[in-house]
Amino acid sequence: MAIISTSTSSSLSIFHCPRTSNSTPKSRCSKSRAQFPGSSSSASMDTNDELKAKFMEFPFVSGSHKKLMVELLSSVDSRLGSSLQSCTLPPDVQHFGNSTASARASLHLRSGLPSSQIDFILGGWIHCDLPSGGALNITSLSAYLKPSTNAPHFLLDLIQSSPTSLVLILDLTPRKDPISYPDYLKTYYEDTNLDRHRQRLQTLPVVKPYFSPSLYIRAVLSPTAILVGIDVGDDEETGVEDIIEHHVGPVAKEMLDFWIESCACLERSVGEDERDYLEERDGIIKRTTIEVDLGASFPRLFGQEVADRVLGVLKGYYGK
Amino acid sequence: MAIISTSTSSSLSIFHCPRTSNSTPKSRCSKSRAQFPGSSSSASMDTNDELKAKFMEFPFVSGSHKKLMVELLSSVDSRLGSSLQSCTLPPDVQHFGNSTASARASLHLRSGLPSSQIDFILGGWIHCDLPSGGALNITSLSAYLKPSTNAPHFLLDLIQSSPTSLVLILDLTPRKDPISYPDYLKTYYEDTNLDRHRQRLQTLPVVKPYFSPSLYIRAVLSPTAILVGIDVGDDEETGVEDIIEHHVGPVAKEMLDFWIESCACLERSVGEDERDYLEERDGIIKRTTIEVDLGASFPRLFGQEVADRVLGVLKGYYGK
Fold this sequence. Notes:
Two copies of one chain form a homodimer.
Chain A: E1 2-3, E2 10-11, H1 47-57, H2 63-80, H3 91-94, E3 95-97, E4 103-111, E5 118-129, E6 135-145, E7 154-162, E8 165-171, H4 182-190, H5 195-202, E9 207-209, H6 215-220, E10 226-231, H7 240-264, H8 272-302, H9 304-318
Helix pairs in contact in A: 2-7, 8-9
């Protein structure tokens, strides 16, 4: 999830994703497809199911934006659901707002089972009325892996602060320094031709490179990261809806599919030293996300009391 | 120096540069100003002086481009000259070309004295006639520091393949993973507000972000790197000459000044473990520059025999 300073700024969640190289890693994920709880037709939903359904509503974003997020989350659930626990966030962290209800948010976090390579997956949306009369809407899906694999994390943030513009952050975030570990760059980014997704979006005239004001965000992303601003201006024929449906959506779905198959589900051999390295570097990434990004934005958006409550719970997952 | 595949592509030299934080490092550089040998008025120049003068001619680039390179090299010489040895490259590596003379190049490399923090500084130019009738001209200044300091290296590449366009790579290249070492990012990039130089150039309508086809180059650069394409098109009033003189030049000079004062000349405390880390990471950067970038381009530009001779000598400085 990405949190914005005034307009659009720095991202908070960080994910990664690579592919097989010479080795032939085994898939650790079940082929069975589980039903996403929020899409259940059960007539009697318990509180947790209600909160999940509320989360899946994405009530403040437009049709193709909502459709994309529901598709991505459903894909995660159907293909990785059997490796994940149910959401264990308290109800008042799954859905919360500020005292005037001008800012609202919903979070859905599922930890990986002990046998899974997945640490946790967090989906979320934030809505905030802007003093100018418009609104800021952020939707996000981030997925962290355990140090039992060195495969990248996954990160998607869609940040919309006007009906005609959007910032997109989409990446498989590296877990090792690509300079000290050139094989890592080769395996996960060069051999996989991951850059083709960025190249594809960059061909659109309404898509421009976006520079996050946070140098940490720029540094944590991969060299193939998609970090773009989309501004359709007065072009009614090619609205943001159209760009999400026909361009952002297909790329996001393809990258998530790749991450699920080749990062989350493929078993890799990681030695003890590398595991320690991954644990330490992941810890920095997760702590920075909470402290610097969310820690700076949540009090402003939701007030200190709500921010303290939510961040306090999230720190249990991201590390203190 | 940056070498181009067909049009403009990947860079070869890598440098860095930061500033003081809480510590108060001492300056290791002499305040005396030495005369740059190539600008000497001595009537009797020896072969080495002639080669230096030939290098400083930058015979294939236009007025403001040449003026900028001479100013930068003179600045290096006058402020760091007393910490550097004379160029020890053999004459046929200081100036060389291919068999048809359609490609020519000049290199000038000065190693740091044992007491200096500077490993070596390489200036160079490459000219190559293009089959299309135009020419490719690259000018470059790169400076590497020793593991006795963790300050960034310096990198400047100006790559011109048409009279109306230019690729600029200008960076203080990090020597530590900015994620595993967040203090490094803070000290050298955040606290110094280095990003202002990139922001300044990005305000010009003719300046666009440039994506190197080499993921290694994208990964090795800092989050404040200037990696831009400049295309003035048919705009006669704002030609490339004008952009170099009024925009690229001032930024390049300011960044080099900063690197000299705050990176090359400030003494820093580096422990044994950190020194080992820097040595290993620097080694990868330098070997990749020679093997991947120059190693792929020089044979194509100058033929295998000349490339082997030049690269063989450069490996003595960059590592094998």
